[in-house]
Structures are given as structure tokens and as C-alpha cells.
Design goal:
The structure is a single chain. The chain is an all-alpha fold. The chain has one domain. The chain contains 3 helices and no strands. Helix 2 packs across helix 3. The radius of gyration is 27 Å and the shape is rod-shaped.
Length: about 110
């Protein structure tokens, strides 16, 4: 199995996820505003759930943003780990290359 990922893949993903956090809060607020005309139309359990959602919108937004923040931390950690691994692989290759004795591999005729 071959695993091939560009050097900027995770940092690009982190930028996209970061923008999504802002968008998510905005979308929740837009959902509440869009549902305002329906507010007086609910009765019973539907009204209770709608009212609960409206009251908890900031809490829900904070929880979702907290989850996205954790995802961003994970992406950042993976980006650091992959970058460090790439650098170490390069350093090891250069170190082994400089220690290799290529003269002994020459064929003399």
C-alpha cells in the first residue's frame, strides 16, 4: 500500500476547517432567524423543542466550535508530525549517503 500526501495537504485542510468554524456559527444564527416566522405556529412538543433550540443556540454553537477546535488541533499535530518525519527522513538519507563508501562498489576491469 502506498500513502502519498502533499506537503501542504494538512495545512490546507486546517485553513478550510478554521473557516468552517466561523461559517457554522453564522449558519446556526441564520437558521434561528429563518425559523422566526414559524415561532407562533408550533404547539406542544414541537414548540418546546424549537424554544429549547433557540435558547440553547449559543451553547450549541460553542459546543460545535469546540469540536471543530479539537479537530484543528489534531490536524495541526498531524501536520507537525508529518513535517518532522519528512525532515528526519531527509536528514537520515543525507547522513547515510555521506557515510557510504561508493568507491568499494566500483567495478575495475
Amino acid at each position: 500500500m502506498k500513502f502519498d500526501m502533499g506537503s501542504t495537504t494538512l495545512s490546507s485542510l486546517a485553513r478550510s476547517t478554521s473557516g468552517s468554524s466561523t461559517d457554522l456559527g453564522t449558519l446556526i444564527q441564520q437558521l434561528i432567524l429563518a425559523a422566526q416566522p414559524l415561532e407562533g405556529k408550533f404547539n406542544g412538543a414541537g414548540k418546546a423543542m424549537f424554544d429549547s433550540f433557540k435558547l440553547r443556540a449559543d451553547e450549541i454553537t460553542a459546543a460545535l466550535n469546540g469540536s471543530l477546535s479539537s479537530i484543528l488541533e489534531g490536524q495541526s499535530g498531524m501536520d507537525t508530525a508529518f513535517g518532522t518525519g519528512d525532515d528526519e527522513q531527509s536528514d537520515n538519507a543525507h547522513q547515510n549517503l555521506s557515510a557510504a563508501n561508493f568507491d568499494s562498489a566500483r567495478f575495475h576491469g
